[in-house]
Write a structure and sequence with these properties.
This protein is an alpha/beta fold and 230 residues long. The chain is built from five helices and eight strands, in the order αβββαββββααβα. The strands form two sheets. It has a six-stranded mixed β-sheet. A two-stranded antiparallel ribbon has the order 2-6. The termini are far apart. The N terminus is likely disordered. Keywords: Cell wall biogenesis/degradation, Hydrolase. Pfam families: Amidase_2. It catalyses: Hydrolyzes the link between N-acetylmuramoyl residues and L-amino acid residues in certain cell-wall glycopeptides.
Length: 230
C-alpha cells in the first residue's frame, strides 16, 4: 500500500510539473502577444478632413524628414487670418497640401494620408541629400502651423502697410501650437522609424528652399521642440 502511495505521489509531482511548464509557456506566449505594438495609425486626437483632390502621388519612398511651415489668410483678412475654412481653401485653390495643420488653439487637422507624397516642399535642396533636390515631397511629412512671420518674412505676399494692419496677437506662434506639435511629432515618429527627433531630420521649409521660402521663420522657437539629447 505504501509503495502505491509513493508511486501516486511521484505521478502527481510529474503532472503538476508538466502543468506548471504549460502555464509558464502560456504566460510567455501571452506576454509576447501583449507586447506594445508598432504604431501604424494615428494615436492622438486629430480632426480628419482630407483635401478633396486626392490625386497626390502615392509615396514609394520611406519618409526620413518632417518639414515645418507657417500659413495664414492674412493677405485677405488681417483681422481674422486663421479661419480654418479660409486657410483650407488656400490649399485647394493652389492644389497643394501638407499632411497636417495645427491651428492657434493646438487642434491638429489631418489633411492627407502619410502614404501620399504631399505637395508642400516644392523645389529646393539639402546638403548631404542629393536625392532630395526638388523631390523632398517624396521623403517628408509636411506640417503647417497657422502663424505669421515678421514683416520682412511676409513681404513676398503683402506690403508693409498691409502687414502693419495685422493685430499683434496674430504674429508668431502660440503655446498650444508647440504642445500639439510635440505630440504630433511623437506620433509620427512612432510610425516612421527613419525620422529622428533632431534638427537633421526635422527642418524648416526655409532651410530647404531659402531663396523662395521664409517659413516657419525667425519667430519659430526651435528650442520648444523636445529634441533628443545625445
Amino acid at each position: 500500500m505504501r509503495g502505491k502511495l509513493v508511486k501516486l505521489g511521484i505521478l502527481l509531482v510529474l503532472i503538476l510539473s508538466g502543468c506548471s511548464d504549460r502555464v509558464q509557456e502560456e504566460a510567455v506566449a501571452r506576454a509576447e502577444v501583449e507586447k506594445p505594438r508598432i504604431a501604424t495609425e494615428i494615436e492622438i486626437p486629430v480632426t480628419k478632413d482630407f483635401i478633396p483632390n486626392m490625386n497626390f502621388v502615392p509615396r514609394s519612398n520611406i519618409p526620413t524628414h518632417i518639414v515645418l511651415h507657417f500659413i495664414s489668410n492674412a493677405a485677405n483678412n488681417t483681422e481674422n487670418p486663421y479661419v480654418y475654412e479660409d486657410v483650407r481653401n488656400i490649399f485647394i485653390d493652389y492644389d497643394v497640401s501638407p499632411h497636417y495643420m495645427i491651428d492657434r488653439d493646438g487642434e491638429i487637422y489631418f489633411l492627407l494620408p502619410e502614404s501620399r507624397a504631399a505637395r508642400h516642399a516644392g523645389k529646393g535642396n539639402m546638403e548631404g541629400y542629393p536625392e532630395f533636390e526638388d523631390h523632398l515631397n517624396k521623403y517628408s511629412i509636411g506640417i503647417e502651423l497657422m502663424a505669421i512671420g515678421t514683416e520682412e518674412e511676409m513681404q513676398q505676399i503683402m506690403s508693409p502697410e498691409h502687414y502693419r494692419k495685422i493685430p499683434a496677437e496674430h504674429i508668431g506662434y502660440t503655446k498650444a501650437q508647440y504642445q500639439a506639435l510635440n505630440l504630433l511629432i511623437d506620433d509620427i515618429l512612432a510610425r516612421n522609424k527613419m525620422i529622428k527627433r533632431d534638427r537633421n531630420h526635422i527642418i524648416g521649409h526655409d532651410e530647404y528652399a531659402p531663396e523662395r521660402k521664409t517659413d516657419p521663420g525667425s519667430l519659430f522657437e526651435w528650442e520648444k521642440i523636445m529634441f533628443d539629447r545625445d
